[in-house]
Amino acid sequence: MIKESLKDYVLSIPDFPEPGIIFRDITSVLQDEDGLQMAIDEMQKLVEGIDFDVIAGAESRGFIFGTPIAYNLHKPFALVRKKGKLPRETIETSYELEYGTATIEMHKDSIVPGQKVLIVDDLIATGGTLEATIRLVEQLGGEVVGVLVLMELKGLNGRNKIKCPVYSAIQYEGK
Questions:
Q1: Residue 11 domain-assigned (yes or no)
Q2: What CATH number should be reported for the domain holding residue 142?
Q3: What is the pLDDT of residues 87-145, one digit of tens each?
Q4: Inter-axis angle of helices 33-46 and 61-73, to 10 degrees?
Q5: Does the structure show a pLDDT above 80 at 174?
Q6: What confidence score (pLDDT) does residue 100 get?
Q7: Do 122 and 64 contact (CB within 8 A), yes or no?
Q8: pLDDT, mean of residues 78-85
Q9: Where are the beta strands (DSSP E) in the chain?
Q10: Which residues does the annotation mark as catalytic?
Q11: Could you tell me if 127 and 159 are in contact, meaning their C-beta atoms sit under 8 angstroms apart?
């Protein structure tokens, strides 16, 4: 049965991964053919009219949402992966996590200088991964024209770290 809103497909799991946290589970969106189609369609509508040349997505949920949008719009897709996963010459950047650091990388030839890039991911929470992805694109000479996410946790203020337009299909006020 098709649900009325994309939020209706997201399961909210209380006290995960720790007490007081409400985990917004998107696997329930992916596991439902109508939910998945609605997610891709709604995300794609948010960027209608935006001029961009390539979509970049971070491992792994950025791949899930970015690739079908790139396919639908006949755009190339640039992979942003964890360090050590790409076989050719790469550039990398590190960023802070809640409990340590992470390093992501892109192939040096994945963005051509001057290309306009739309970054796609599943979630913006604190904004760390997206901020690092923007740095990589800019290192390669690309211009980030927007960030597109399925879900935004507004209470974590990740949008404040992003210096370009942010488009989110679903917004939650809390953390």
A1: no
A2: 3.40.50.2020
A3: 999 999 999 877 789 999 999 999 999 999 999 999 999 999 999 999 999 999 999 99
A4: 70
A5: no
A6: 82
A7: yes
A8: 97
A9: 11-14, 22-25, 54-58, 77-82, 90-97, 100-107, 116-124, 143-153, 166-172
A10: 61, 98
A11: yes
Going by the DSSP 8-state scheme, the letter that residue 87 receives in this structure is: S
Phi, psi of 106 (to 5 degrees): -135, 155
In this structure, how many other beta carbons lie within 10 angstroms of the beta carbon of residue 116?
16
Please indicate, yes or no, if residue 131 is contained in any of the structural domains.
Answer: yes
**Residues pairing with 172 in the sheet:** 153
Q: Is residue 45 a part of any domain in this protein?
A: no
Quick one: residue 12, left, alpha or beta (phi over 0 = left, psi -120 to 50 = alpha)? Answer: beta
Domains identified in the chain, total number: 1
Q: What confidence tier does 79 reach under pLDDT thresholds 50, 70, 90?
A: very high
Whether residue 39 lies inside any domain: the answer is: no
Q: What does R_g of the chain's alpha carbons equal in angstroms? A: 16
* Residue 24: closest CA among 128, 129, 126, 151: 151
Q: How confident is the model at residue 59 (pLDDT cuts 50, 70, 90)?
A: very high
End-to-end Cα, the chain, rounded Å: 29
Q: Give, in order, the Cα–Cα distances in Å from 144 to each of 11, 110, 118.
A: 31, 14, 6
Q: Which residues pair with 6 in a beta bridge?
A: none
Report pLDDT digits (tens) over 151-160: 999 999 999 9
